[in-house]
Amino acid sequence: MTGKTNNKRVTLMKLNTLLVTCTLTLTAALTAACGGKPTPVNTAVIADTTKPNIIMIVIDDLGWSDVGYNQTTDYFETPNIDALAQQGLVFDQAYAGAANCAPSRAVLMSGQYGPRHGVYTVSPSDRGHAKTRKLIPIKNKRGLTTDIITIGESLKTAGYTTGTFGKWHLGADPDKQGFDVNVAGSHQGMTFHYFSPYQLPNIEDGPKGEYLTERLTTEVIDWVKSSKDQPFFAYVPYYTVHTPYQAVVDKVNKYHEKGIKSKREATYAAMVEHMDDNVGRIFDMLDSEGLAENTVVIFTSDNGGYRMSSFPTPLRGGKGSYYDGGLRVPLIVRWPEKVKPGLDHTPVINADFYPTLVNLTKSKQPNQVLDGVDLTAHLLGQQDIAERDLFWHFPIYLQAHHAKTDQGQDPLFRTRPGSAIRSGDWKLIQYFENDEYELYNLANDLAEQNNLAVQQPQKVAQLKAKLQAWQQQIGADIPTKLNTEYDAKVNQQLIREQLLKAKPH
After folding, report:
1. Are the C-beta atoms of 457 and 444 separated by less than 8 Å?
2. What are phi and psi of 194, to 5 degrees?
3. Out of 101, 117, 274, 393, which one is annotated catalytic?
């Protein structure tokens, strides 16, 4: 196996376990000093005392409807993921912790909402034209600080060997944050070449023309085979289907023949299929090695699809948007004989993975606040999840790519600074610039086209109070300082110009 690999895994595992234990103790003191409390997991009964293996597959920029079992078109072919959906529990109202790459992954790895770790975007927070930003945005952190205990670090307290294969994008190399093996993970948020040479840190280039998704899958398979004598956690954050759009020519031509005229869209569909092929390779390996029964497989995406290439209809918006097109993601959990297959309508968020895995693996509870809930009892069919609210916070600017396809509040930004709450079937979006609100009933308006804020002032007031209470409780930084460069006339003029460009001719 190539990549940054630890040849003294057992020895270092013991050392890391000791270090994590010390870190947990220190974190407990710091947490108490800051007024926070560790979040307890529930006491779901797991009949089998054998610790399950965990494989978590996170696809980059895969839209909610860009998988065969859940799509609104017949373009995409994902037979392996579709089979997984038949074998596992499908959550059709699963959410990312943020609408773009790094902040969503930060929520997943830390179990904490954005205001706790401060990762809101992948670059500076003052995006877009300076004259169109009314507020000075909150500064962004580029990655998780090392004082935050990651899922990998927690699972190591239960004797798990851990490996990550693909995109990290959270600051320090993952081998410093709980992973024994790191293949291709670093600060870098994307590859510029899906065909070797990759020009990525922590992975050796393969033969010319080798495809990155294939290579990462081979690395996963080889590592699992070598690690199967002890419980393992394989984190598989593929770089695909993030840009650049590069795929095998035969697959691209196949989608042209299916009626996709756009080269970009045909290539994207080909990348989705190629990803599915490799997910299938992982499933085949689990079967051949006799590991499938005792392995929990989690399949999901880090955020909504990129609207310039995916097909998110009926959802509004896409990656970077705080409408459901940017936040809602596919999610399947398979654990044979433990998790009953089916369709689940419970709203969940990727912050829930952390406390769930802590319980499933019998890991030591980290002495840090976890904002997600433990889904174990729900997965095992022992009890439903109590109704709760989900939150998102985005105190920065993210400029638009294309006024028409982005479907943003205005054509200049995919989103302006704000927060959002989902409470039952209702969703409220707050914009900080003018304290404006949008209110949607997702049960009746999945596409978020009918803003009910004016018609439902009492519901707005109710959800606003909940949202503000959460902001205060979590210590969310809210931008209030005015940007002296802002020019209302320029802002409106640019909006008008973009709206004219977006009109069909």
Report:
1. no
2. -75, -20
3. 101
Encode 461-474: b = buried (16+ Cβ within 10 Å), e = exposed: eebbeebeebbeeb
Does some domain include residue 370? yes
Assess whether 428 and 376 both reside in one domain.
no
Q: Are residues 237 and 334 in the same domain?
A: yes
Task: Please indicate, yes or no, whether residues 370 and 429 belong to a single structural domain of this protein.
Answer: no
Of 353, 385, 417, the residue that ends a domain is: 385
The verdict on whether 101 is a catalytic residue reads yes
Sheet of 390-394, strand order = 390-394, 418-423, 426-431, 436-441
CB crowding 169-203: b at 16 or more within 10 Å, else e:
bbbebbbebbbbbbbbbbebbebeebebebebebb
Tokens of 402: 């294309």
Q: Say how many domains are in the chain.
A: 2
Q: Residue 340 is part of a domain; what is its CATH number?
A: 3.40.720.10
Residue 140 lies in a domain: no
Domain encompassing residue 361: 9-39+51-112+148-385
Q: Is residue 45 part of a domain?
A: no
375 and 437 fall within a common domain = no
Catalytic residue (choose from 117, 169, 242, 393): 169
Read off the pTM.
0.90
- For residue 22, give the amino acid letter: C
- List the structure tokens of 61: 């920029």
Same structural domain for residues 335 and 443?
Answer: no
Residue 185 covered by a domain: yes
Give the integer Cα–Cα distance in Å for 378 and 388. 14
pLDDT in tens, the chain (505 residues): 444 333 333 333 333 433 333 433 333 333 333 444 445 555 565 656 689 999 999 999 999 989 999 876 778 899 999 999 999 999 999 999 999 999 999 999 999 999 999 999 987 889 899 999 999 999 999 899 999 999 999 999 999 999 999 999 998 689 899 999 999 999 999 999 999 999 999 999 999 999 999 999 999 999 999 999 999 999 999 999 999 999 999 999 999 999 999 999 999 999 999 999 999 999 999 999 999 999 999 999 999 988 777 777 789 999 999 999 999 999 999 999 999 999 999 999 999 999 999 999 999 999 999 999 999 999 999 999 999 999 999 999 999 888 777 888 899 999 999 999 999 999 999 999 999 999 999 999 999 999 999 999 999 999 999 999 999 999 999 999 999 999 999 999 999 998 888 675 4
Which of 345, 360, 385 is the last residue in one of the domains? 385
Rounded Cα gap, residues 502 and 402, in angstroms: 8
Residue 169 annotated in active site: yes
Distance from C-alpha of 281 to C-alpha of 55, rounded to nearest angstrom: 13
